[in-house]
Amino acid sequence: MNARETAWRLFSTELNSATFEIKATEEKKPSYQLSRLGAMINRVLIVGVLTEKENVGTPDEPLWRGRIQDVASGTVFINVGRYQPEAGAALAELEPPCLVAMVGKVKSYTTEDQRTFVSVRPEHIVTVDEQVQHAWLLEAAQSTWDRLVLMKKALHCGDRTAEGLEKAGFPATACKGLSLAIETYGEEPDSASYLKAVQAALRTLLPDKNVDLGLPEDLSESPDEVDIEPAAAKGATEDMEETVLGLLDELDTDGKGAPREDLEKRAEAEGISSMELEEISNSLMDKGLVYEPNLRYLKKI
Predict the structure, then answer these.
(1) What does the alpha-carbon distance between residue 126 and residue 47 come to, in Å, rounded to a whole number?
(2) Which of 155, 188, 206, 220 is 20 to 30 Å from 125 at the Cα level?
(3) Any residues with CB less than 8 A from the CB of 183 and at least 6 apart, and which?
(4) What is the rounded distance in angstroms from the CA atom of residue 83 to the CA atom of residue 80?
(5) Which of 108, 137, 133 lies closest to 121, judged by CA?
């Protein structure tokens, strides 16, 4: 069974500052880039404007480099080689500037003068519309706010170890990352930079509201928790998951699973985009409901 890491929704501000790599200690185990807000990042989902691309390889063996502007905070750098054939073929056809959604693995590179640069190797990249962009901005803003709240609270704990944070009531899934981030970066993260990204996202989503978060430089107290995720979004996701599970039953005619191409066509007919299908598939795999028995196949458990 091929389990996948969750694709994080986060802005370039947080991604580009995740310069510390948590290297895998066992074969076939994932490595992570550790963000200053405690996110242990293996894969990301980014939506933004592809502003430029360049083939620095050859026509026969292309090596693409590009930049995606996430609107809210800055640029995400991407690299696509021969081990990402699907993303490479898609990128070759795209003409910047265009709005895209991209799922990929995060990598870092440290230069001789010890500067570390973070980039993404896309697995999938597709053009999207503003509706998809707005949904991503909302999710990224909510998750960024949640991580900022947790980090602020963790910094005020007496015992900042993973075990201490869990005993203090922090989510078990967040404790290791929070503890490592505090230990590794050794300073309080720049709250203003993350709040600026959240504010920019909300201003894009609510252009008539003139959203102003105040942006205090010193947030000695945790920001008040806010719910900026519409309740309807969760219900819509659950409905789409049920639709995809039903399609898997229909398309698995030989017991080997549903071919991805057929699943994508049927899902699109049901109003589910290819990028939404990718994320729904990841969610269902995270829940242990489906798995990939082979490349380009998906099967219910």
Answers:
(1) 10
(2) 206
(3) 160
(4) 8
(5) 108
Position of tokens 């030989």?
Answer: 254
244, 280 contact by CB (below 8 A): yes
Report whether 55 contacts 94 (CB < 8 A): no
Angle between helices 130-155 and 191-205 (to 10 degrees): 150
Is pLDDT of 219 > 60? no
Determine the residue type at 268. E
- Please give the Cα distance from 79 to 88 (Å, whole number): 9
| Average pLDDT value for residue range 173-183 | 93
pLDDT tier, 271 (very low <50, low <70, confident <90, very high otherwise): confident
Contact between 122 and 116 under an 8 Å Cβ cutoff? The reply is: no
CB 264, CB 214: distance < 8 Å: no
Alpha-carbon gap, residue 125 to 112, rounded angstroms = 31
Contact 198, 145 (CB under 8 A): yes
Q: For residue 269, what are its two tokens?
A: 């007919």
- Give the start-to-end residue ranges of the domains of the chain: 7-129, 234-300
